[in-house]
Records
---
Amino acid sequence: MEEVQTRLQKIGLDETTIKNTLKGKNALKSILQTLDLVGVKECDKKIGNLLYEMSQNLTEALDNRRALLAQYIVEGKITNKLQLEGGLEYLRTHTHLEQIPLQDFDKAAGVGIVVTPEQIKTTVTEFLKTKEDLKTIRYTYNFSEYTKQVRTLLPFAEGKLLTQELNQQIEAILGPKTEEDLKAAKTQTKKPQQQQQQQQQQDEEEDDCKFDISKLVARDLATTVNSEQLLNWRKKNFPYEVLTRFPPEPNGYLHIGHAKSINFNFRLAQHYKGVTYLRFDDTNPEKECQEFIDNIKENLRFLGYTPFKTTHASDNFGKLYDYAVQLIQKGKAYCCFLSKEESSKLRNDLKPSPYRDTQPAENIEIFRKMKMGYYKENEVCLRAKIDPTHPNPTLRDPAIFRIRFTPHPHQGDKWCIYPLYDFTHCICDSIEGITHSCCTLEFEVRRDLYYWFLKELDLYRPFVWEFSRLNVSNTVLSKRKLHHLVFNNIVDGWDDPRILTLNGLRRRGYTADSINKFCDLISVTRKGNENFIGMHVLESCIRKDLDIKAPRTMAILEPIVAIIDNVADDFSEELEVPIIPRNPQKGNRKILLTKSIYLDKNDVRTEDHADFWGVAPGKIIGLKQCGPFKVISVTANEVHLERLGKDVKPKGFLHWLSVKEATPCVVRLYDYLFEAYDPNELDDYIKGINPNSKIVCANALMHKDLLNSKPEDKVQFERLGYFNLDFDSKDGKFIWNRTVTLQEKDKIKAIAQVDGKQVQKKDVPQQKKDNLKKEAKKE
């Protein structure tokens, strides 16, 4: 490979071109064949680049003309790209000839023609004399159209010199731009934006949705209607009346918002006795990998959903290529050589690409060469030819195929051009027979583009419906922000229990039933993407689920020894307690009360206080399952108790463990990741991180009955909350993650919403606090 690289360097190719050529097998094979044919080992950079350009533009039909073109380049008859293109075009249109008439070929390739700057100047001057309306329309003229017309007069003129001369002469005729010129240009480009703003204001008065493209521009509803022929095609090929799909891009980990979409698509199909696809919309190999694909499949299994079929958009790349060719043949797509920046500027200025009117035959040839790997990345893309002035930006000639020399996780190195999402998504929906294409509201603006492709290709058209995206308080769900949190080590990976990825929720202890219940509870609406669901709603779902599933036991976070003074040293009393009080069928378990027990330091004080119900000198306390005790004394390291008769009624009961049944463990106490209700409203959302979102109790103790626990086993540590055994638990080390506290106090913990506004807890009127508590109880 080094030898080949050196050979390409000797003909003057730059490093980027060499790198891309080495990636593309066909491109490399073609240039080496040309060099061998004419015996070139080293040459001038200009000749080398022309030989390379010629090699990359040859089709199979023109391969027998390779020697002719190469010889013309080496002998200096073809000296620039324009002459090469002229020669190639002549050969493409004369493939039926066994022998090429060299006189005609020389004329077509401009052999011997040298266009001087003086000729360019004279030709531009004569051309502008024909534009009598130029002084009237002034700077609103179509520069790309002017350039194209001059080019027909001087087909072999150097492009840069031609456009410079054209610009200079027009400025000389019109003079500098006046305020009126600038105002006219501003009006021309801003008018659609002003219409959009006015319409958005009307939309907000009529609906909660932030943006409704159907009111901005009257939708062509005819494009959404299936012909009888298309309906018959679907009926013949798909027996299900309702077919939905969950179509993730395999470029990250799923979160609670994806769970809402999964739940909606699968339940919708089930309700009508239909089925659901899992389809990977894998159109971007640079961000996709097998790890994400496998994880998404596992997440669906975890949630309890089995797809009808698992498909990949990339399996249809061949069909998508053919459909793109159909658009080109209809004059509905073209190859564009503008850079991303140049294209963005023209789109923003509502101006067309100068390549927009390239003939279909030439576009097909360029597109074929894109597929063969003859062009560099970002050198050219295929665009749909719709309307560069459309108020909806998605319809301004969007890109539909681009070049990427990156192996695909599912297709390998079979392709070097990849379709973009908007082109792929609708066609895959159609050929899979999807009846209901459901997505979130931010995609509503793309609905017209969705149907444009299907109409132009005469494909079956699914029904498209958008719903509100899920936002949950005290966290972020943006893929970009989650990525920042993970890769800056602000959280402990994609399965950190503080973030709402499905991996994180599962590791924290959320069950599939609780997540599905949450999705059912919040339902699906079109109220807009700005509404938030309080975290307490999600917490309520897991509490209700674990209340009847999780065995009860006790654990100590910060142990302190307590000695019962009025029992014998060998005292031991066996107590029988219910495993799950709300589910008597689960039976009972036995625990020991002994002379020495452990209490939690959080429940212990050396001095009493009126509002304190825990352990302090002289107080009467209760210990769960074994009655009242009097506190005799308290030191920093030890508590002394006296057991009392059962007729004494303490205010509350504390958790404890016998020293004979306690075994070490680690407990992680998780809280909201962000203190702010909506972190997205902060200038820097990272500053809203809750410093106490994770507290590790490294010296905790658990009951020895838990020694046989396995990862993902769930328990209730009485008074502390529900806990899940972490995947890191191994080699006799037990790590428990707190899933949720026992009470819904967090609902009004730090920041609450009152009448739609975020306020500090201290500013919430007492009546509102009471209402919040009542709502929590209802849930």
---
Amino acid sequence: FVLAALWPGALSVTRYSIAEEMERGSVVANLAADLGLELGGLAQREVKLDIFTNKKYLDFNKKTGELYIVERIDREYLCPAKPTSCFLKLDFIIETPLRIFNIELGITDINDNAPHFRRDRVELDVSESATPGERFSLPNAVDPDVGINTIKTYKLSTSDHFTIEIQTGSDGTQYVDLVLTKSLDREEKAVHKLVLTAVDGGVPVRSGTANIIVRVQDTNDNPPQFDKQTYTINMAENTPIGTLVVNLNATDLDEGSNSEIVYAFTLYTSEKTQDVFTLDPNTGEITVKGTIDYEDMKFYEMHIEAKDKGAHPLLGQCKIVVHVTDMNDNFPEITVQSVKNTVPENVPVGTVIALVGISDRDTGDNGKINIFIHEAMPFILNKSSDRPTHYNLIVSEPLDREKVPEYDITLIARDTGTPPLSDNETITVHLLDVNDNAPQFPQSFYTIRVMENNAPGSLLSSLTAFDPDLHENQYLVYFIIEKEIANTSMSMLFSINPENGNLYALKTFDYEIEKEFLFHIEARDSGSPPLSSNVTVHIIIVDQNDNAPVIVSPWRAHGSVVEEKIPRSTDKGSLVAKVIALDTDSVHNSRITYQFLQVTDASLFSLDQYNGEIRTMRMFSYKDSRHLRLVVVAKDNGEPALSATVTIKLLTVETDVKAYSDMTEMPLEYDIFSDINLYLVIGLASVSFLLLITILVTIVLKCQKPKHSKTAPPSRNSVISERNSTIADSTLVSNDAYWYSLFLAETRKGKLVVRQPVPKGSRYIVSSIPRGTGLSETSDSAASTLQVGVL
């Protein structure tokens, strides 16, 4: 605590002096006593203390009259300009009556601040070539205190190369210089770390420090150095380009550009060596850039220099010797001479295709060569007798273009070196086509079904052959091998497109007249000579339901109504009549069924749908009508079905009439010159005359027709077709056993049998007409027709 002192001699200003940094509550002075004021009077008067700062450092105690500190006073803050003296001015004001006392408080300094450097780290760059005695300025330290409390001196940490010198300016400020006392060597020590200390004169003594970093700058005083003076390296010839030979690593103790090294070949390195090897100037890598050939050079010698980039560059040198190791580095070579790239496929075995030569630059085992064909082919290599390094490539087997159109013959030549080297050469041989393949049909026999009533010109089938040859040797022409069936040429019935083999029908076929045809079709190529093959074609005419059934029994002499008499005493199950119909279509379409279309009494008669028999289902009664009418329809099995009808009128009589089943049918000879037969004879004579004229014209045309080169004899099928055609025109055969046998017997005698009942009271008769006259009778009903022809 520092007591405050009243400065004597000051009449209007009261002055005190205290030390800075006094504790809060510390009494500066008893202001009331010093100013002669009574404490009792102050308690009832207004007292104010004005301080001319932005802080309230002091206050007045009215009870004790003391002036005391309420906030620490910092002299360096209050007087930053560091004057020799520092005052705090304030007014003590008393109201009623107003009295003002001027007070000055002097603040004395204490050593409360240590010296400090504005930069606590100072970096200096000093060349290693600097001479002793050179000076380097250092920054000054500052101390806010004054007097003896400010900076007194500087100190430097121990150093073999540096010291300091202190100089004092005219204003008393001390300046420090760093002085070099010994030469520097960057390679020995590149950085010197020093500590500069500033010390004040206060009590206690305070100090501040700064780090001085001295970086020694390099000078180019060290040349590059190689690890060895001579490098010996072994390399195989044909080492790949880019292969590393050696990586040179010269070192330079300098730094910066003084240590940066550039590598280069010296003048002692030959141009040929520099063509084979390349040197990277920055990394010192030596790599292969050309071909190393033992046969050209056994070893290479290179002289290398390493130079730094200093202002005055220094350099180092070395020598590299590369010994080349011999290798099997030459590939065999194949030379093809006099090659035939195109040959016909029928070239003879033993024909020479090419002359092949082989060679190798190597010697010894590396120069011995074996040559062979890569894959098994119809070719072989024969060694030439006059030139041991030449071979003849010849055909060893017959060639076939249709199997292999071309050959890629790969020849491989391999030496006996280690490792063995090889070369290959491919010879392409194209085979020219020869017409050596006949056309071939996919099938040897074609069965073609044709629906009857076909349209003329309709396509029946496409018969296409294949020929594996090329060009004109595979261009095919199709034609029908000419033959005749029943004096009719196949070319009049069928036609084939000569280009694509489409087979067409030239006429409309009728199953009832012609049922099948058998002929041959030939396919011929356009080669020279042409080759051909043929195929058998079997045409089957498929039936259509185009013929309606024809009712042949019971016989209708006039119209479509048959009148019969039957006794009323007929028993149940008795045969009344039997309807027989014939259909000239095929078996399936000619299957006939019978049924009643109309019947007077459905309970009296039954009709068997398969054989056409009409029988009684019961006996006649007095209630039954005397006149009965039955309409029977005969329907075939075709699609759509065709039919024919017959009307049977029955008259029941009381007298006994011989049963239908017991009636005897006897032949009755008509008068050959009856009215009907007269008309028939005239008609048949006209038809026969026209037929005779037609036959004569046909014979004349046949005689004028040129003979064909090839005429196939009539086959069994053609005979069958002709026979079936004849039968189709013959008289229809009834299914009735009796009439069928009678029909056969009489026709053999040259007569035609007609079944007809005799008038009432007479027996049934049969008329026969000699062969050749013909008979055809057609009723007025369109649903029932009977045709009788000549066998």
---
Amino acid sequence: MSEPKPPTPTPGDTYKGWLFKWTNYIKGYQRRWFVLSNGLLSYYRSQAEMGHTCRGTINLATANIAVEDSCNFVISNGGAQTYHLKASTEVERQRWITALELAKAKAVHMQAESDDSGDECPAAPPSSGQGGGCRNLEIQSTLRTLGSKVEDLNTCNDLIVKHGSALQRSLSELEALRVSGDVGDKMKQVTERATLFRITSNAMINACRDFLSLAQSHSKRWQKALHSERDQRIRLEETLEQLAKQHNHLERAFRGATVLPSSFSNPALGNKGGVSGKGDASDEDDDNEFFDAMEDPAEFITVPADPKYHRRSGSNASGFSCETGMDDQSVNFDELSLASNPESPQTLELEPVRQRRTRIPDKPNYYLNLWSIMKNCIGKELSKIPMPVNFNEPLSMLQRLSEDLEYYELLDKAAKCQSSLEQMCYVAAFTVSSYSTTVHRTGKPFNPLLGETFELDRLKDCGYRSLCEQVSHHPPAAAHHALSEKGWTLRQEITLASKFRGKYLSIMPLGSIQCLFDKSENHYSWKKVTTTVHNIIVGKLWIDQSGEIDVVNHKTGDRCHLKFAPYSYFSRDVPRKVTGVVTDKDGKAHYVLSGTWDEKMEFSRIMQSSKGENGTEGKQRTVYQTLKAKEIWKKNPLPEGAENMYFFSSLALTLNESEEGVAPTDSRRRPDQRMMEDGRWDEANAEKQKLEEKQRIVRREREREFVKAASTPEEADGVETGTEASEVSDESAHPDNYQAMWFDKFDDPASGETLHVYKGGYWEAKEQGSWDMCPEIF
């Protein structure tokens, strides 16, 4: 400011008055009552609101003050809050500017002093109790007293300078008037000024003495309190770190103790709440070892079936026709038919096929504060927020979808089942198995670019091949198609919605998954459950799956209801527990499934059901009498050193392996993802930003083309009847305006859902090496 500033007001001073504040384009500037006090500028609709309703407050310590014209000025604190204000006159505006600048300077000065003193008492933990609160009040009171004393010293200094100057002038005038007759009057005036100067000097001396005394009396106490607060903060940080480590150790110990195989096989644990018993070789009586009763809040419980059911040999259908032939290993419903079938998957796996890689470069140990980035994402849709590759794993979302096929053998076996109910059990087990790869995978997959594809050709290895394509960017949606020589087709379209809630991150997969079998023409569909990433702020990240899945056979009406129990420290159940019941179209239960989504699933055939006792919530639970539980699916062990390779499974390690002949849009060709896998994270971050900016440019170009097309005579009538330019822009961003390369939208009459279905042509184009139609996205 070029103009001299007025004297600094005392800490208790406030500045009030009417200003016009910009509200919106409809109402324009509105008259508001503003109050400037203690470095804060607040406003109200009227003076009467000051006692109860504040409309907004901005802290001047971090604010910028800018003058626009003679009456207008702007106050902003970096984008979160911006006030466009207008005074009635230029003089009034200058008064406000002066007051605001002074208040800002004082607020910055007080904040700097607070930071220098290390005073963090207001952020003290609750454990400090009432003593900490009293100490804070005492310090604040002392600071206010010292502040007032300093202001008194400033005032006395100004008065001393003023009266000293006046005294000097009087003495000079006295020298000039020695010879005149007015010496008496001048002597009297000098005496008065000298008296004022003496009084002011005494006041200055007294104020200095009081300030010095007060500062000395509190200096030692403040130093002691400061050291105490610093020590306490250090102890709290160390305690918090130790608690986080103890939390992780206890959690690992608890999970390790509850997921041991013995917990599934030991009959003594029958009352501890678990899943079906495994039946070790040491069991003496197979007729008496079945399963463990399920605890509340389960909707049903299971009890051993009558032994007479175990002696049946010819009356039971499917794999249970020979119960004595089942050992304690993994058994399936169609085990006998698979063992005698020369086309079983086991014979195919013996063929020498391409050797694929078993390792990738170890994950670099780059530290990045997750909370420093995620704190700005609370409540937002994370798919629209650019994230550094430090939070990623070197796979795209398309490759993660392809990982669902890791346990494709379940669908191969399901395709050979004669009974739709048995087939339902395998489809349900396949549904659960797709989550087993996520238990340690806390890294975020790369968001695919629009038009990006990924092929997984395992026709020679496993008898299937699949193709994924990113068919929409906002919202992100991927279409997946897998076809097997064993007579099944898997197709899905998944749209991910994610929200960060502060302590955890929720990922909600939207869309449908469908499985079709050629021989039986059975058509299944289901949806995915919610994935939650915990301990975002402190502790080790861990993942949980929770929710319910209904697997429906649209041809027969059979249904399997799966329940993924959320993890709880206080539950006596096995962590990551999954239970399910297979019912026919009439609602009659035939099979019970139980297990965990990260280890294994078991099934039991229901021989009889009845209504049992009431649960803890007063609901009557169904009691199922079942045969001995057998294993239907078990997770493959992770490769050696997986903890250094993003906890990838054997299949995941091969997904980003370079292959010849794939489309130019394939995820394996994505440069930032390849750089991250090679450990060049800085280069990967730079390349990722280039690809995202390139995608935004293409998107804007597509929007311009859409707006241009909408301006044709055929569209003009629609625009004239009220279509806004913003609406045209929104329409252009709709995924319908992007035509996928290999998928078309299809209205499925069986499930009543609309999804992208493979339209063919990809594998033919690969054989011919003709990729001219593919867009350039990398």
---
Amino acid sequence: MAGVLKAPGAFAITPHKVSVCVLVQIYASPSQISIPFPFSSVSQHNRLGLYLLALTKSCDDILEPKLEQLISQLREIGGLLDHWLTDHLTSRLSSLSSPDDLFNFFNDMRGVLGGPDSGVMEDDQVILDPNSNLGMFLRRCILAFNLLTFEGICHLLTNIGIYCKEAISSCSSYELRRLDDSDIEVFADPKSEHNDKGRESSSYSSSGDLLRDVDLNGGVFLRTNWQIQGYLMEQADAIEKDGSSFTLNAFELTLRQLQKLAPELHRVHFLRYLNSLYHDDYFSALENLHRYFDYSAGTEGFDFVPPAGCNSFGRYEIALLCLGMMHFHFGHPKQALEVLTEAVRVSQQHSNDTCLAYTLAAICNLLSEIGFSTTSGILGSPFSPMTSVGTSLSVQQQLFVLLKGSLKRAESLKLKQLVAANHLAMAKFNLTHVQRPLLSFGPKTSMKLRTCPVTVCKELRLGYHLISEFCCEGSTMTTDGAFSTAWLKNLQKPVGSLVLSQDNSSRDNSNPFLFCTQPSSIPGSVLQLVGSSYLHRATAWEIYGSAPLARVNALVYATCVADASSSSDAALVHVKLIQHLAVFKGYEEAFSALKIAEEKFLSVSKSRILILKLQLLHERALHRGHLKLAQQVCDELGVLASSVTAVDMELKIEASLRHARTLLAAKQFSQAAAVAHSLFCMCYKFNLQVESATVLLLLAEIHLKSGNAVVGLPHALASLSYCQSFNLDLLRASATLTLAELWLSLGSNHTKTALTLIHGAFPMILGHGGLELCARAYIAEAKCYLSDPSFSVSDNPEVVLDPLRQASDELHVLEYHELAAEGFYLMAIVFDKLGQLEKREEAAASFKNHIMALENPQDGEDPLSNA
């Protein structure tokens, strides 16, 4: 039957491949000159070669292009030769009217290839290397033709006829009048309607439209297995990068139709699993994952190298790894840990060291992201990776052992990308954990219970350098296919049509290095690791307290690798930059940037952008005194942190912290202290020590404002101790400021102590602190001077007024009414002592305005729906 779809596992000769062979013969004509006819320059000759190379490797679709699409592309790259190329191509195809013509055609193809049988060659003779990409393609075409039966050759002739007739039917009436005696020459306008429906997009939509129009009795052919696999890999990368850009039903329809056309292509099931996974369809994802491993035994589409001497057990361990990651994605941490532990057992039994290394890395990621107070009963099985050291260790110690083991195993297997990822994981662990002795007996060596920023920086640098060696693990299908696809896409872009416009007589010399200007061929997974390195650096500087360095690394990420990053990582960078704006520039600029981010990222449940919006709304509501709105936002955060959808410890802590701050603003001190104490117990249970420092500081604030300064002192000192251990410099400065406020509230006898503490924290606060922290420090300094019996306002009033004015300006940007009212109250006292009654009344009026704003907040529009 004419037009029958070829199996993707076989390399079948098709009309499109015959057309490419014709073009290859033009490119590598066995002439006696270095620039064969009809080319007039080396760049013109090279441009056709680059096009042919891209055509044989592109992964932009699963169907071979038709003749009119091929001619349209030739017009973009042919330059002044586009008419000659299309005329020669169509006339050569029309001349193939009998089996003998095909035999003679492929016999001529042998002369294009070089080799030991090609005889003596001249120095400037053009001969195609048989081992080159185009040479291999030509050899496969010749072999596929030689394997055809006579009936198959007749089918090929019929298909060539259909292939040419479809080109005629797509021509406009004007173009038909221009046809010559060959009866199939096509001079299609590259801007014609059918060209606009070309292959500019490699997304599911273009292939889906083509597949919906597939006629099994027409001249439609699937591309080579290599190209189809490359297309599916590109779609998988695109889904993992930004699954929300794929419409669930539309892409599902495309995959189902592809499955009908090539039922033996089991990787389609894996794409259906990914599509369901990133659209949160649990049951469909589970079903398709089971189908994929049932049909393919897990060997199709994975880059894991089979271990030497490994028996084929269906790659059950890989299926378990995928299932565990699926449970992790859907927020089932316990099931994920159980499945991954089983994957460790099976990998060990089957001696699959590579899968074992990836599984250990997945367990490490799970333990670091999800809160576990204990793993007993899960990691204590006979095949558990923790069996050798026992399970009496804390979860954090078990995580450290697993990280070291995973890193060592990845290094021994020379899995450089996994080694780099493990270095980043080690940096993240060392950032928030103090390394303690794993053994509770034997001689003890003295050690400082502190984190080491040098170690963190070292791990980050090691990971970054290893990423640069990606070429040892790079997939040629990924790099070559993506590179060729991008090159063909750029033929359709306006800039290409301008550079190669027919109206430009010098277009043959223009843009000769078009192929070199394509996007980088670095795999997307490697670029994501590079981005993760900068994200970790930004997070590290945030924790250590250097806002400028955190912002710089976030900007580097957003500028250099945002296009290759996943949507979640890109959203995280936007969150960091917007938070920086809120802290240092105020809410107006932050909400303006948030509006842009909301247009780029969908504010779905639990998205980082939605959480950021709630955080900003809560902070602004507290500053304005909108306690009802603040509580409403807290309730929204509490819903997102619900354990029904998953236990996100970071979000749960955030919701509890904001609940306690709302109660504190409402002067419900006992309830606020109870919430904060419960939160500290949870942090202690899960060994979240950095978070514990923040909660202790909150408890100190609560006791300060409730008038129990003596009770608050131990909490402030404990928070300082945590900050010193984990090098939390900015939080340490904030804790020092709170400690000074506590000392000051104990009476005027402690003003010197408080002032010394404030001045000691000033360099860090003024250099790296935000508007609110700086304003607090200024007001606390002024209060210390005013509370000191030995200080005379009349002798040096500017010592007090300057910091109060600075605080006033910064609090005005934040709309922080309570703290601003306190500042104007102090200013009124100073002006009263100086006898400046007019300025005193101005300060008093400002004080009253802020008090009234606190007592009568105007909620206005619903900010939860419109920021």
